[in-house]
């Protein structure tokens, strides 16, 4: 057997390979610089997994500005207002081609070495691992754009296929690869370091493959229920990713490379979204005074108080239930994960308080003005120890007269724990497996545990991740509604009334009053008639649990089910790239009010016009942001 090339030489060859991959159609180019007998399959797998962590340039644009925005994890209009960016899309599209190029090369080299008898005891397992990881990468790409090419290295531009064919292929790959893994194989220690997720623990790779199969099968539940059910049940009968030690996660590190944190860039403060805030407040019935130090207790407001009303400065043209109000304190009850994920404004002694962006003092500026159109001060607000979130969109003249909403320091920002590149980025966690099983149980599918047990295990797993397990028992039995009209207790499915009375104070005159606050009508789910059924509970908990690591999955669930409730962007003035939403219909929800995908890149259109036409043809609509994917809710 020929000598194996040194890793440094291979890395150089791989850099050449990836650097040449400027367009997605180049995924077909064979990048093997060394003889196939000489290269190590595990190096290509390692390169692909690490690359997919995304360097800060790609992460800022795709993970943050696309996924976290479309997935309603943070305050940002962008694609939620219908605006995409070809440069941002190209950065992700081309990078994804590189990751797929690497993993396809791993499979090709493994096949060639097997044909020549140049195998080690673990060679077959490496190929199966590569196939499992490739299935994830292809699903990620398809969930962003739609129809993709599933064949590579054929020496010609790829043929695109419809999204149904993509998903059938991925499900078959996961099934076959997981079954072919030999979990009894013992690896040399040197091999383990080439797998940043599982250190080539094949039991964990099989669990991941089976749980990924649950995820992808459930994606088809609304459009291909028979296939979804059969695939899901088959995968659920195997070993699943159900323990925290099995989580697919990769260690981040400071700097500027592929392992630098996906949420590390300072330009975006990553302020809490109003979607999350409405889900958090009241959910679980856990009092703020039971979560926070006594120094915060004086700021905690009564449960029936919604805040100061500023109708001239906070938009009312959105179906966000607390529109127009500013909570001049802390919520009486809130999900225990909220204060862990986001920081209270003014809590500068908190070691996880994020001061980003560091070049100005906006994160520490808690006192700001509400002005009149002439620039005079109407009201000065100190946001210290307050908790507010606001709708994105076009605020019209309010955008210039309301300094409170425009300063980072007046709203809860994402914890520095996720911004310092010292965490482990999660791709799949145990709680997701449980929530998928719970949803399947509600559908009547055959799964290894009851819906209630799976649901509660999912919450339990996520509470453990956040270190708030002391509140678990009280939380799981709570019948308190959040602002969206959903409670936690599995047995409590009573629907809330259409509205509830809340005390408020006029922010301009200081006159108290009582307001009738509507629970939002989510027209995308059961015509808005249901807010507290079992599926809404499951997806609510899943959405919260997936924050902040899996915004793409939050977006996927909303596209698939219309859950959880997403408020509409504000339309004080029209949103140019979201013409379907107007000042006449903003109190209703429509599929066309929310982004459904990313447009294909100009690079694909220019370099592979045939492939582009194939892709758009399979898309079944215009190559636009609001064209739903095949599996999405219609």
| DSSP helical segment count | 20
Helix content: 25-40%
Radius of gyration: 25 Å
- Give the uncertain stretches in residue-range form: 1-33
Q: What percentage of amino acids are in beta strands?
A: 5-15%
Mean residue pLDDT: 93
Q: Which term fits the overall shape?
A: globular
Strand order of the largest sheet: 3-2-10-11
N/C terminus separation:
57 Å
Q: Please outline the major beta sheet.
A: 4 strands, mixed
Structural class label: alpha+beta
Please count the beta strands (DSSP E, at least 2 residues each).
12
List keywords for this structure.
single chain, 634 residues, alpha+beta, 4-stranded mixed β-sheet, two-stranded antiparallel ribbon, 12 strands, disordered N terminus
Structural overview:
This protein is α+β, with helices and mostly antiparallel strands and 634 residues long. It is 37% helix and 8% strand. It contains 20 helices and twelve strands. The strands form five sheets. The chain has a four-stranded mixed beta sheet with strand order 3-2-10-11, with no helix packed on it. A two-stranded antiparallel ribbon has the order 1-9. The radius of gyration is 25 Å and the shape is globular. The termini are far apart. The model is unreliable at 1-33 (pLDDT under 50).
């Amino acid at each position: 057997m020929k000598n194996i090339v040194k890793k440094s030489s291979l890395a150089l060859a791989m850099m050449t390979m990836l650097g040449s991959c400027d367009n997605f159609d180049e995924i077909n180019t064979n990048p093997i610089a060394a003889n196939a007998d000489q290269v190590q399959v595990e190096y290509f797998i390692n390169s692909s997994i690490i690359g997919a962590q995304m360097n800060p340039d790609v992460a800022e644009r795709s993970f943050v500005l696309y996924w976290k925005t479309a997935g309603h994890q943070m305050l940002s209009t962008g694609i939620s207002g219908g605006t995409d960016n070809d440069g941002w899309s190209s950065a992700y599209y081309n990078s994804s081609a590189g990751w797929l190029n690497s993993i396809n090369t791993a499979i090709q080299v493994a096949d060639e070495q097997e044909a020549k008898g140049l195998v080690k005891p673990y060679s077959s397992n490496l190929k199966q691992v590569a196939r499992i990881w490739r299935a994830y990468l292809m699903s990620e790409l398809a969930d962003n754009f739609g129809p993709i090419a599933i064949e590579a290295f054929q020496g010609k531009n790829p043929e695109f296929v419809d999204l149904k064919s993509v998903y059938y292929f991925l499900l078959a790959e996961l099934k076959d690869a997981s079954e072919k893994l030999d979990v009894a194989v013992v690896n040399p220690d040197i091999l383990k370091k080439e797998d940043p997720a599982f250190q080539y623990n094949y039991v964990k790779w099989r669990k991941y493959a089976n749980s990924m199969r649950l995820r992808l099968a459930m994606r088809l539940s609304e459009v291909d229920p028979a296939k979804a059910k059969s695939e899901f049940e088959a995968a659920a009968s195997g070993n699943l990713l159900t323990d925290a030690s099995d989580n697919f996660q990769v260690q981040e590190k400071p700097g500027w490379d592929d392992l630098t944190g996906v949420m590390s860039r300072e330009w975006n403060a990553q302020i809490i979204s109003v979607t999350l805030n409405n889900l958090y407040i009241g959910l679980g019935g856990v009092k703020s005074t039971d979560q926070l130090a006594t120094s915060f207790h004086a700021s905690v407001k009564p449960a029936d108080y919604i805040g100061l009303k500023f109708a001239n400065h906070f938009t009312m043209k959105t179906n966000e239930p607390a529109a127009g109000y500013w909570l001049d304190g802390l919520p009486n009850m809130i999900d225990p994960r909220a204060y862990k994920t986001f920081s209270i404004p003014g809590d500068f002694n908190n070691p996880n308080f994020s001061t980003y962006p560091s070049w100005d003092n906006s994160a520490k500026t808690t006192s700001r003005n509400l002005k009149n159109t002439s620039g005079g001060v109407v009201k000065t607000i100190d946001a210290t120890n307050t908790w507010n979130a606001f709708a994105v969109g076009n605020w019209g003249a309010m955008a210039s007269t309301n300094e409170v909403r425009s300063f980072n320091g007046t709203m809860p920002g994402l914890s520095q724990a996720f911004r310092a590149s010292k965490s482990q980025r999660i791709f799949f966690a145990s709680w997701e497996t449980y929530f998928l099983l719970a949803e399947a149980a509600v559908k009547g599918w055959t799964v290894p545990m009851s819906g209630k047990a799976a649901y509660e295990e999912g919450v339990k797993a996520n509470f453990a991740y956040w270190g708030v397990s002391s509140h678990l028992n009280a939380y799981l039995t709570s019948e308190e509604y959040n602002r969206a009209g959903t409670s936690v207790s599995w047995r409590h499915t009573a629907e809330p009334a259409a509205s509830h009375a809340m005390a408020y104070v006029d922010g301009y005159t200081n006159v108290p009053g009582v307001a009738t606050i509507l629970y939002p009508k989510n027209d995308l789910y059961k015509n808005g008639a249901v807010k507290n059924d079992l599926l809404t509970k499951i997806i609510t908990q899943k959405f919260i649990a997936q924050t902040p690591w899996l915004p793409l999955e939050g977006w996927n669930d909303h596209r698939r089910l219309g859950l959880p409730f997403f408020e509409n962007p504000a339309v004080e003035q029209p949103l140019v790239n979201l013409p379907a939403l107007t000042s006449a219909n903003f109190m209703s929800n429509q599929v066309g009010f929310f982004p459904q995908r990313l447009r294909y890149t100009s690079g694909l259109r220019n370099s592979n016009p045939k492939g582009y036409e194939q892709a758009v043809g399979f898309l079944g609509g215009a190559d636009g942001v609001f064209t739903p994917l095949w599996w999405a809710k219609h």
